[in-house]
Design goal:
2 copies of one chain form a homodimer.
Chain A (H helix, E strand, L loop, with lengths): L5 E6 L7 E10 L5 H14 L10 H9 L4 E7 L2 E13 L3 E11 L8 H15 L4 E7 L3 H9 L3 E3 L2 E7 L5
Parallel strand pairs in A: 5-6
Antiparallel strand pairs in A: 1-2, 2-3, 3-4, 4-5
């Protein structure tokens, strides 16, 4: 399941003129990675301007993972998780089996180093291995770097569907 | 799992001045209902102006159902399926367990008779039974009757997310 190690030059966190030769790899995530996954989700929520919206706990992640509701893929360097994909199998009534990518995150310090591309590439391989006919996910309409990333890879980006959400703790 | 029989007056298909007292009920769908489910999906695709887009076969439905990828709920009258909900458990990285409603259909002749409300009500009960913290689905931005139906029931309808789709048989 592991991809080859990828070698990249990463700017030092301490001095902007220093670069360090580092490597990362992509692997299937496990139960032990869930706390790192949640930390990255919280980081992305800040980027998406909704830091208060993450109310799921580590226990929620652990229970759902053990129920087999989702799988994860992680990017890792020196035993540190720097990127995440969280996904699950669904079904398109029009097309058939569809792998849904719920979240796709690269930690800020590691963006622009090929980590997202490597995760994306592995995710598409997994879609084929699982015999899904398509992959689906969502992107915020103001997130131009992400939209560019997808459109360069032949992804269809559509604006004609609205999301509907009903929280179980609301009235009505 | 069955709800009570609901009694409604339904216009005759042969004479617009004749009404017939009929009843329908909501029940968990089974393997044997999948061909009726697919027939309703094809009917909805015509309403959504994309009749060619349904490429999934009955076999695709049967295989995915047997793999446990989705569940269905059906509305039924006189052994005929007149309404469908197809859904599956997913995970919101922000909120936790989330029941996703992939498709929600009432056959044209039976619209406006409370079938949609009865399905919707049963779906919300199932969300609670499965301990999902929220339900999510999508609606086309021009489908005003559906948007009204949801907004009257306290559903949050959002327009800031774009759908991304990648078909596995495409290049890149």
């Amino acid at each position: 399941m592991n991809t080859k190690q990828k070698i990249v030059w990463v700017k030092s966190q301490f001095c902007p003129f220093l670069f360090k030769k580092m490597s990362f790899s992509i692997r299937k995530g496990e139960y032990k990675d869930l706390s790192s996954a949640l930390a990255l989700v919280r980081e992305l929520a800040v980027y998406e301007r909704e830091p208060e919206a993450v109310t799921a706990s580590l226990q929620d992640y652990q229970e759902a993972y053990q129920e087999g509701i989702f799988e994860i893929l992680v990017a890792e360097t020196e035993n540190q998780v720097i990127g995440l994909m969280l996904f699950y199998m669904t079904f398109s009534t029009w097309r058939g089996k569809m792998l849904y990518l719920e979240d796709f995150i690269v930690t800020e310090h590691w963006r622009g180093k090929g980590v997202g591309s490597a995760l994306y590439h592995r995710f598409m391989e997994i879609c084929k291995e699982k015999r899904a006919v398509l992959a689906k996910w969502q992107v915020l309409n103001w997130n131009d770097p992400a939209i560019d990333f997808y459109e360069k890879r032949g992804v269809i980006v559509e604006n004609d569907w609205l999301n509907c959400k009903k929280f179980m703790n609301s009235s009505l």
